[in-house]
Specification:
This protein has four helices and ten strands. Helices cover 12% and strands 35% of the residues. It has helices at 23-27, 56-62, 88-91, 144-147; strands at residues 8-13, 19-22, 32-39, 45-55, 72-77, 83-87, 97-102, 105-106, 116-118, 131-137. By secondary structure, it is mainly β. 38% of the residues are buried. The chain binds ligand MTE and molybdenum atom. Molybdenum atom is lined by residues 40-42, 124-125.
């Protein structure tokens, strides 16, 4: 689906220095590894996934930090306007990253390759596949599933599946 010579990923909205990477530039960023469980809202879980990629904190640092008003993010996928929203605090948790590999292999297209967001502490639908951009916002803005009844936060431990 995504030609790597055309691939771009950007951090925009309420950051000090909006920034955009092509594939080659993105590959040159420092890497993080995270071992985490993945919880789908339809009740399956996949335990002990090894994700490798660029931490969300690293991305924000490269964008010169967030502006004081930034409180939410909207993640945009390459799949035609697909979005999902999450609070800034969850996005910046220390195990959140834009993953390029899963269990030692490059991410497959089916699972969101070449790059996807992974936020282990929220339900899997917040982990945007085929990531194209992260937009920082002052106000929460419902994404695709959230407009269709899914929860604005989506904490699996609180079973925040619908509404809210
Ligand atoms: N861009 C994008 N990301 C997405 C989705 C989507 O439709 N588009 N679906 C979400 C949902 S509902 C789930 S459960 C997970 C599934 O990830 P997987 O296919 O790797 O299991 O991706 C999430 N990320
Ligand atoms: Mo899902």
């Amino acid at each position: 689906m995504i030609d790597l010579t055309q691939w771009k990923f950007e951090v925009r909205g309420l950051v000090n220095r909006p920034i955009r990477w092509n594939w080659e530039e993105f590959l040159a960023l420092p890497r993080a590894k995270v071992l985490a469980d993945f919880h789908c809202v339809t009740r399956w879980s996949r335990l002990d996934n090894l994700w490798e990629g660029v931490s969300t904190r690293e991305l924000v640092e490269r964008a010169g930090g967030v502006r004081p008003e930034a409180s939410y993010v909207l993640a945009h996928g390459y799949d035609q306007g697909w979005t999902t929203n999450l609070p800034l605090g969850d996005f910046l948790s220390d195990d959140a990253l834009v993953a390029l590999a899963h269990d030692g292999q490059p991410l497959t297209l089916e699972h969101g390759g070449p790059a996807r967001l992974i936020v282990p502490q929220l339900y899997a639908w917040k982990s945007a596949k085929w990531i194209a951009a992260i937009e920082f916002l002052a106000q929460d803005r419902a994404g695709f599933w959230e407009r269709n009844g899914y929860h604005m936060h989506g904490d699996p431990w609180k079973e925040e599946r619908f509404g809210g």
